[in-house]
Automatic annotation (TrEMBL):
<feature type="binding site">
    <location>
        <position position="241"/>
    </location>
    <ligand>
        <name>Zn(2+)</name>
    </ligand>
</feature>
<feature type="domain" description="Hcy-binding">
    <location>
        <begin position="9"/>
        <end position="323"/>
    </location>
</feature>
<protein>
    <submittedName>
        <fullName>Homocysteine S-methyltransferase 1</fullName>
    </submittedName>
</protein>
<dbReference type="InterPro" id="IPR036589">
    <property type="entry name" value="HCY_dom_sf"/>
</dbReference>
<feature type="binding site">
    <location>
        <position position="308"/>
    </location>
    <ligand>
        <name>Zn(2+)</name>
    </ligand>
</feature>
<keyword id="KW-0479">Metal-binding</keyword>
<dbReference type="GO" id="GO:0008168">
    <property type="term" value="F:methyltransferase activity"/>
</dbReference>
<keyword id="KW-0808">Transferase</keyword>
<dbReference type="GO" id="GO:0032259">
    <property type="term" value="P:methylation"/>
</dbReference>
<dbReference type="InterPro" id="IPR051486">
    <property type="entry name" value="Hcy_S-methyltransferase"/>
</dbReference>
<dbReference type="InterPro" id="IPR017226">
    <property type="entry name" value="BHMT-like"/>
</dbReference>
<dbReference type="InterPro" id="IPR003726">
    <property type="entry name" value="HCY_dom"/>
</dbReference>
<keyword id="KW-0489">Methyltransferase</keyword>
<dbReference type="GO" id="GO:0046872">
    <property type="term" value="F:metal ion binding"/>
</dbReference>
<feature type="binding site">
    <location>
        <position position="309"/>
    </location>
    <ligand>
        <name>Zn(2+)</name>
    </ligand>
</feature>
<dbReference type="Pfam" id="PF02574">
    <property type="entry name" value="S-methyl_trans"/>
</dbReference>
<keyword id="KW-0862">Zinc</keyword>
Length: 326
């Protein structure tokens, strides 16, 4: 299936949802709720090695909550990351492939079950392969600073992303989700790579923001979106894992800067301490607040809305209930 047909699948889904599809919530958060130990350089991707069944369970929980799109467990899964754990290249690539398979299996199993129930309100979900930023791989919280150092060039970022992208694409997801991109250079690397590799799967690129105005690097979103707006591979652009109170302003800003669909899936408002590897308490938003926010974000034009870290299936249930109240 070519790029146009895959884009049409996503467009159909958004239409079936009444104009705004629901993305799932914090994947790592739900793993932890089930007791997974992810204080690890591979973070949530450590579960691909240790507990693949749990990954499937978490996908199922988000599907049951009403997610129309599930994001795979590959955010911090990288070939060099797995190799530094003693795995071979072949084993590393097969874990990346597995991340897509687990989500596809969960989606198919769930859809097989609910599609037989008359009057159900679910849609057949799509699977988005997560591609975390270079900063996520560094595991030092630099996805929130954008500070990759002087020696990180466009080519280095493309080299970092290339093989993982090829393997994930080969595994056949419906979408690609570039997550927590903190600067223009990496956004540009991702776009150029999609083109160079002739990828036929629509992608979204989401940035983080720590001030609600700019990318973490200090670059304006006008600059950051410039290479994305020109690309046919990019279906949507937006923000993930930033605090929810920033989102309204950022949707307004993005609507002036792009014709692409807008995707937002903020975290709960807590702040990641990259050194201590834990979430610090901060102004934190619960499910009821997310439900109210979701209506507002939809009315402002967002086409894909969900939650990121520290949100759970109950958050997604609240968002889904709200957005699908027709
Ligand atoms: C989205 S952050 C909470 C993921 C974890 C981070 N890359 C780290 O390893 O510290
Ligand atoms: N999708 C990621 C989080 C991105 S910040 C995960 O939970 O593994
Ligand atoms: Zn997150």
């Amino acid at each position: 299936m070519g790029l146009e047909k895959k884009c049409a699948l996503l467009e159909d889904l958004i239409e079936k949802c009444g104009g705004c599809a629901v993305v799932d919530g914090g994947f790592a958060t739900q793993l932890e709720i089930h007791g997974a130990a992810i204080n690890d350089p591979l973070w949530s991707a450590v579960s691909l090695i240790k507990s693949p069944e749990l990954i499937k369970r978490v996908h199922m929980e988000y599907l049951e909550a009403g997610a129309d799109i599930v994001v795979t467990s590959s955010y911090q899964a990288t070939i060099p990351g797995f190799i530094s754990r003693g795995l071979s290249i072949e084993e590393s690539e097969s874990l990346l492939q597995k991340s897509v398979e687990l989500a596809v299996e969960a989606r198919d199993k769930f859809w097989d079950k609910v599609s037989k129930v008359s009057g159900h309100s679910y849609n057949r979900a799509l699977v988005a392969a997560s591609i975390g930023s270079y900063g996520a791989y560094l595991a030092d919280g630099s996805e929130y600073s954008g500070n990759y150092g002087e020696d990180v060039s466009l080519d280095k970022l493309k080299d970092f992303h290339r093989r993982r992208l090829q393997v994930l694409v080969e595994a056949g997801p419906d979408l690609l989700a570039f997550e927590t991109i903190p600067n223009k250079l990496e956004a540009q690397a991702c776009v150029e790579l999609l083109e160079e590799e002739n990828v036929q799967i629509p992608a979204w690129i989401c940035f983080t923001s720590v001030d609600g105005e700019k990318a973490p690097s200090g670059e304006s979103f006008e600059e950051c979106l410039e290479p994305l707006n020109k690309s046919n591979n990019i279906y949507a652009v937006g923000i993930n894992c930033a605090p929810p109170q920033f989102i309204e302003n950022l949707i307004r800003k993005f609507s002036k800067l792009t014709k692409k669909a807008i995707v937002v899936y903020p975290n709960s408002g807590e702040v990641w301490d990259g050194k201590a590897k834990k979430w610090l308490p901060s102004q934190c938003f619960g499910d009821d607040e997310f439900e109210m926010f979701a209506t507002k974000w939809r009315d402002l034009g967002a086409k894909l809305i969900g939650g990121c870290c520290r949100t759970t299936p109950s958050t997604i249930k609240a968002i889904s209930r709200d957005l699908k109240r027709r």
